[in-house]
Amino acid sequence: MSTSQITSRDKPSQEMVLCAFLGSTGYHSASWRRFGADPLANIKPEYFSSLAQTAERGGLDAVFLADSMALWSDVSTRPSGAIEPAVLAAAILQATSEIGVIITQSTTYNEPFNVARRLASLDHLGHGRIGWNIVTSATLEAAQNFGLHDIPDHHQRYRRADEFVRVCIALWNSWHRDAVLAEPQGVWADPSLITPIEHYGEYFRVRGPLDVPPSPQRVPLLVQAGSSEQGIALASSYADLVFTVQATFEAAYAFRQHMRTLTAAKDGRRRIRVLPGLIPVIASTDEAAHQRLADLDALLDPTQAVRQLERSLALPAMTLSLDDPFTLQLPDATANAGNQTYYQVIKQMSDAKRYTVRQVAQLMSTSRGHRLVVGSPTTIASAMIDWVRRGAADGYIIMPAALPDDLGLFVDEVVPILRSAGYESSSSSRLPLAARFRGDRREHAHCE
Question: Above pLDDT 90, what percent of the chain?
Fold first, then answer.
């Protein structure tokens, strides 16, 4: 589809939610090896603030900060470790004025009061621009960092997560909207409008109320990124946005329809947005973009990539050989206590019986199962519009292969094509972040 075709024929004035995944030097495992890349970017708040300013310049809805609660890769093969996302978010919020900041906070290795307090504080700092990516943390290393011998059972983690979110919502709503009077000659707040939540549940006992007055959003934007059965159930109960791993149109369409059906059954007033991860590799022509990806792939050490694949599957080192067929007899994802989403991506490749170990290791180093689109700005924009128009996505989590270059190219070359085609973000509304996606209601119906 040419640029002229996009601008002349496709003007539906339709929303396309765009969030930028900020992963130090980029999502591609070899991005840090590029000439000019900063191998210490992961510990520089000013670097992330600059990326967020680029995303804000492009009118994106939010930036997204992941977290692992542990060193998640071999530190000899790529930069690992990062500044705690809430601390990093504070720097980004101070450096920007409109873009949202979605931070990852674990429900397994935190307490509800701490997270509710932290997010409310950041929401005050950003004047209503904070979001919470709700995760249960699925690595053995994270469990061992918090005194556990093994990863808690998958079902147990999600039961705890559901109660955790309910407690946070209750804490955010423990102050009535009219509680603070701030009358210098009278009363600062009405005590009768600030009430304990008195929560006594399976995992938590929390008296409340929250010790932070209501923030601009009260309940921050809620995001969920798991695609397991339990993750989908959690998202359908609470999430405004869902971040999902989908590589094909058919899978993405089916996931979105399922997600919307479940959400409608629980709360018919709430519209959930489904955002597949998208890795755009951009150049002036399709041929040049494919060469850019080939240049990045050439920087990969295939042996190291295989060792990382073994760690992902909890296999002993040296189990896999580069040129062997990848035909492991992997159990169903529900039997895996760890991250079921990425495990399922690997299992599907094993079940297909048409990949070598080398191919699987490279794919996981390049995209980890996310949709990879390589081409000119027009090619990238056309591919994005196609899924949104046909009902497979409400937008995307943009995961630049190499930062900061690919984010700048996306903002300067792809976003203008999307805008000229009539696809808009919510950032121009100047409403608090969550209100942009919840209509006129400042809280979820189930929070009131």
Answer: 65
